[in-house]
Amino acid sequence: MGNVKAFVLVVLTSLSAATSVNAVAETKIAVIDINSAIFASEPARARVKQAVESADFVALKAKLEGSTADFQALAKEAESKRLTWSQEEAAAHQKKMEYVKADAELANRKIQAEQQQLQQKIQQEFMPQLQKVIGEIVKEEGITVLLRQEAVIIAASENNLTAKVIDRLNKSSK
Question: Is pTM, for the whole model, over 0.90?
Answer without folding.
Answer: no
